[in-house]
## 1
Amino acid sequence: MYKTFHKGGVHPAENKLTAESGIIDLPVPALVTIPVTQHIGAPARVVVKKGDNVKTGQIIGQGEGFVSSNIHSSVTGTVSKIEKFIDSSGYNRLAVEIETSDDEWVENIDLCKELIREITLPRPELLKKIQEAGIAGMGGATFPTHVKMFLPQGKTVDHLLVNGAECEPYLTSDHVLMLEKGEEILTGITIAMQVLGVTNAVIGIEKNKINAIGYLESHAAKYNGISIQGLKVKYPQGSEKQLVKSILKREVPSGGLPSDVGAVVFNVGTMFAIYEAVQKNKPLIDRIVTVTGRSLRSPSNFRVRIGTHMADLIKAAGGLPENTGKVIGGGPMMGKALNSLDVPVTKGTSGLLILEEKESRRKPIMNCIRCSKCVSVCPMGLEPYLLMILAERRFCELIEDCHIGDCMECGSCSYICPANRPLLDYIRLGKARLRELKRKKKEN
């Protein structure tokens, strides 16, 4: 039986143009730009200097503090710059630029593709390897994985949920990863179960990926405690709170986390990264990225080194079409338009979407007609029209009382609005202003 959440949600066109495209290894680029902030929390501290020669897999940024993550070189070459650059969100971030040479990997990384199922290390060593590898949530949230696995004293979980829903239109990177690296993912899940001390794990996959459901079901019997749950196709099915509701029928409280109701949620890409870190000694230096769009000559799923510029991905997919109106980092619902193709791939980059001019044009904004459609589709039960008004008028304290922090920025409200109101834009603005207000209060 296929499951789903029942509050809100929308059904945008799937447009999974690359669902039949296997994983293609993108050649190592001539230049990479590796940000030292690719995760939620404190930036990593740069431990190399201009002119240093580095190897593939070598640490170049040391995680600072508890909520932080290590950064590794994804290539072999020479550090040419250490300076700030504009990232995909439009902010200045410190990064290490490396001019590449022949690929030479750090000695202890196992490059053999043979599956290693047997897990020999005790729990503390498993957690240490995950931390050292610099793994952050690869579903987009980029929360340091070792921190998420470190449960506070007195808090217990009984289920590990693995997000294979990939409900965002156009994107297929998780889908092809499940098909091509299914057993590695299952082994990674087994490692995570041992670290968390749970005996039950469920992989949630939307039914439009029936081949992935069947493939993983055929192998899951060999792995204790892992089951596959088919999900109905509905956006945002892959959000962790919705996944908990769909599979376990548990409601995560406002301002709470899945661990408050006995669950921890990870993306399938994160499980694969855990496998590579523990079984292959490989840090997180590459990931699968969907490069797609109706006008692209060769939309594809690429295995990409972290720090590769978006321009290199577009070139590999046939070049930028003449009728391009917008380039989006991510998918059409939660992604953000890029102002430069020199923006690099990071640990949280799942896709690159090329929209045609006619697709990317915003329709004229009209007055709210009080239809309440934005309220009915909000999976968190919020009132997006009200949040937009409060954000527009800078009523920061009122906006917090209306639980703006619970908004996951899924974009369902903007998608459904018949008046074409930029609800999500203003909600993001309201969140930013609220953070600024809190920061000023703390400084005073």
## 2
Amino acid sequence: MTDQFLSIKKSLPTLGVGLGLRRELADTTFQNSERIDFVEFTPENYMDVGGAAFERLERAKELFPLVSHGLSLSVGSTDELDVEYLQSLKSILARTDVPWWSDHLCFAGAGGVYFHDLLPLPFSREAVAHVVKRVRTVQAMIDRPLLIENISYYMKSPGSEMTEAEFLSEVLEQADCGLLLDVNNVYVNSVNHDFDAKKFLNEIPLERVVQVHIAGHKKTAELVIDTHGTAIVEPVYDLLRCVLSQTQVNAILLERDQNFPDFNEIMSEIAGIRGIASEASREARSVEPASLERDCQEVLA
């Protein structure tokens, strides 16, 4: 177990508050470039393509710092790593000159079948060892800082022998990689699986957080579902405050992938996130370090 990534994090740029590059919002996003700090793109949408899609990414690169957030790494799968995919990924990351790249702590396929979904792993020591080996392999192949994201999940995988927080922590520390912390996913999972969200945050290595995702969700009679299709709710904003009270974060991304509102509503959410980040930064300069964890507990009490 090493902590080389913590040294790498110190050299990474601080990007601010950004928005995902979505075809439906692209033109308006470009028109508001002075109000959006960075853009996150999905590399699978732009690998080995030309035409309008490639032009969209090139335009984004002209206007914004870019980061990459993938869907197909399937780092938890028992299938062999897709070398062709990784080579294409490395090429587009070089072309866009991203400071880091990210994907999900999950598996997305098995037996050569891609499921078009992000599926949870068993929270087991065997799964930790398996994922750590694969994370180290892809980090060496891509040679850029890697962040893994905590996913939302709606059933617990058989064979679990630790909590999600313990599992995530073990993977991060043994693989020595960074964390893309999705605070909406933390909230969704805490409601669906009946655990304490603030306790979860206090149990994971927040010092490894480079980027945060924040989004809205949908409530049904039985579940809370991570949709990226509604406004952010106050308990999720509170989780963001909690994280920012405890660690330095380089980037915060508003995820909005469907049910797009008037763009002014999106910009209002970005402004609200930026205000929370600014407030946290001011408080961090004036508060004694020993009181930060207590502040987090109070924010979420």
## 3
Amino acid sequence: MKLLIVEDEKLTRSGLISSIDWSLLGIDEVLEAANGSEGIRLAAETGPDIILTDMRMPRMDGVTMARKIRQSLPDSAIIFMSGYSDKEYLKAAIDLKAVSYVEKPLDPSEVSEAIKKASGELVARGLVKQGLSASLRENEYRLAEFMTRPGTDPFPSDMILPDHMHTDDHFSCFIIKYGSSPLAFDERLTAIVERRRLHEVHTLKESYCLCMFVFGKRIEREHLLRISGDIKDLAVSSGIKYISVGDICHGIKHGYDSYESAVVRLQEAFFHDPVAVLMDTDALSASPPIIKDLAPMYEEALESGRSESAEKALTEILAQFSPPCRMLQSQVKDIYYQLFLTLQKAARKSQMSEMILKENQSIWDMIEAAESLSSLHGELESLTKEYIEGLSVRASESSMIFTIKEFIRQNYRNESLSIKSVSDHVNRSAPYVCTLFKNETGLTLNQYITGYRIEKAQELLADPRYKITDIASRVGYNDVNYFGKIFKKITDFSPSEFRNNLANDNPGSETT
């Protein structure tokens, strides 16, 4: 049987592995993962019989990971480890039909008993994965992995070819990039390949990629077009983002050549819309060799405040990078970095910097997170439109009201923010400021300050890295209980209820 240990503390993992005689428990292979995302990937790749996982881990907790794994491995036995007496986590363990719950600090004897119980249930239900079929499947994984390495390595002596594979077959590598880690190999891919009287072996790689080697005595380009077209039809239901098709090569030793060409083509994915098939690069020579510096044109459009000028500049910028593009993804991101800096500079000059970037977000982080040119350019378009609209709103608002709102945006984190500090800033009496603000906006100054703080708190609650006590202080409340009362009064939910509702609305999101 296979056991997967998912635990973010390396010392705990190594101590657990060394302190138990796994062979006596019927475990012949122990796998380890440092976080929930890695656990999902290993589970999809190896199909463990038992999963021993920590409850609380950074990036993705054990419960979220287990729910995702359950979708493709419903019969795997799950054992949770935790040092927290958290009722919600215990409820989740029950819902997921966990075999056992082991408290930390771990006692090896308790872990052993939990594993005995899990293996006993698996054997009784006839669900233990063993025998020739599992060995053959694992051998095919190894074979596909071997072909993703340069051909300098000797062919492993203990690796056998599948019955339908020959060393002189023709091969083509398909790299299928997913939006998130696939939970298991989609058997529909095998059916698509076999429909063309071809075969496949596959392996999972990092960055949410599946490498599938299609092979047979003869492969035509038409085969690859039809296979990629059928895979594209699965994109919506399977979360496929891009399909990169490698060159056709002759002989298993040249499988890496096809893989390498698929990897090169995958680099162009950034310049294509999602679910594109990346197959031919012959048109690359037709792409424009010179990229114009359009930053001055964009800057001038921002200074004018005219939406037509901004739209024209953005359209010309995007047109230069339409595929096929001679530039690397990193070079294009550098250009967009300068464009975002230009926008940020204009926003600061107009006292609208908070409109451009959300709290705790850097320009470079936003650019790095962009998976495609269209998403990156879309973000620039959206923020440019927000900036232009902000200029329009500012023009219609009295300068006094704008100055007050900007002061609040810059100082809402300070507990000392008050009507007095606002009135002092604009050099007017408090009664005058309060009356003017109410007449212009329909809100009292205190209502606006409180509403703005709660709005920022809602944004922070969407990020599981922040504790509620930290969020309270970040929006100007040193008393977390008072913050909770104000938050519930405005939203009808406590901060924890609001966060739970967000998690329920986005079940695929990572939490801690």
## 4
Amino acid sequence: MKKIDVVHFLLKNLSDVPQRETATAFAPTNIALCKYWGKRNQELNLPVTSSLSVSLNQKGAAVKLKINSRAHDVIFLNDQAVDLNSEFSQKLISFLNLFRAKQKWNVDIEIKSNIPIAAGLASSACGFASLVLALNELFQWNLSSEKLSILARLGSGSASRSIEHGFIEWHAGKEETGMDSYSKKLAAEWPELCVGLCIVNDQQKEISSREAMQRTIETSQLYSAWPEKVSHDLISLKEAIASHDFELLGRTAESNAIAMHATMMDAHPPIIYSSSKTLHMMQKIWELRAEGLSVFFTQDAGPNLKLLFLKKDEEVLKEKFSMMEIIEPFVMPACF
């Protein structure tokens, strides 16, 4: 099955003509506590394993779509026009083409992101999720969150987890069509939980997640142990979330991230996203934990760390990591 087939199936009997002139939507970025690393189907972005994340409420991407009368799309990223021939634009346009196979329409796309692009902070996740949410509004499809997560997944796998806020589990599914591979929100909140963004490098990474995943699957001997590791970690994380056991959550998330990066380092050629600053920060976190401070980290496909801690330790950690931006995933800001 191709992406276009999935789109046609999910939108069967729904409008293929925009019902509004404009539509806007916001989607949060998400930080995986149990990682998605590896595809069983690259065309449909179907994962080898399930994964679990927490969204970062006000951090993410907002998209505005406006029907235009031109013969082409126009794309703006953070108020700057983007070359339509760039890799960034071509990926967006290819995705939009899935929804205009029958009816031709073009749009002005305004994207505003408050996180670095392609730096290991799931910018593609919130980008494609916000685009799908805006299309849902533009066409008035009124799709369920599960169907929206499937559509978002076609743009970027982790976008499946950015349709909603909170703890999100992306089910790997087993069907070749991918219709059982979608994300669902867990019925749990944790107001005291904090995530600290420690940006050591906001530049675009040299090796994309897509390329790194495939190289890991094809060449890393350690990857064979990854699915079993994920299976155990998912159980532990859901237990931790249900009982608000922070030590279990932090220990499991940190172990999962280290394991993912170990499989990459075992690839050929090795994939190493960590910089000397990343390693220095890890060491600092381990030293603080040895001193009795309950703080853990997770790391995605980039050099930047995300600290996990509870609200009661916020002031102490702000002193230790002055450049850290603190997010409270379950406390929405007043202006949200």
